[in-house]
Amino acid sequence: DQRNHGARLIDPRANKGWSSNPAEHNPRHALDQYAIFDGTAHDVFHLMNYLPAFLFPNDERKITEYGYSGISLGGHSTWLAVANDPRLTIGIPIIGCPDYMGLMSARARGNGVPVEPPYFPDSFVKSVTSRCPMSKGYDKKEESNPFYGKKIFVASGAADPLVPWDRSKEFVEKLEVGEHGRKAVFVQEKTGHTCTHE
Known about the structure:
alpha/beta; 4-stranded parallel sheet
């Protein structure tokens, strides 16, 4: 489970969004969501640091490739992790967005929430933008691009109201993976914020 989800639930309000209903409104929506999936990315980094030693204590084998896949918050986390760790060579973000600030700014405006403190503290915005896939030279045909040489499969719903495809489309179209990388995209028509069998 992600932080504050499933068996790890601590604060139900932290999983809620902005709402005109005071009982459902979470003023920290942008921060809470990011902290949850950023924490998951760090969990994966931690696993990659120690998993080889636990699986192969006598160095019987060497893990040479890691992949990351997630749905919704897990999709956001996939984008973040693959952009920030070269060990991750396969990424499968499902209904996730590589542009968190763009996604949340649009969501805030749609809910009448200003894109400013206390909803978007400067310290938070700086932290997000410094590690965001959008800031990583994702469209460059060179090794400095953290996606260069990686295999990326993107799956989204064309009618997703929560994580609209148009928030990811330009990034994904410009995403450069190079000659040895692979990029595939599946945007399912008439599909909202759900992971289907297709």
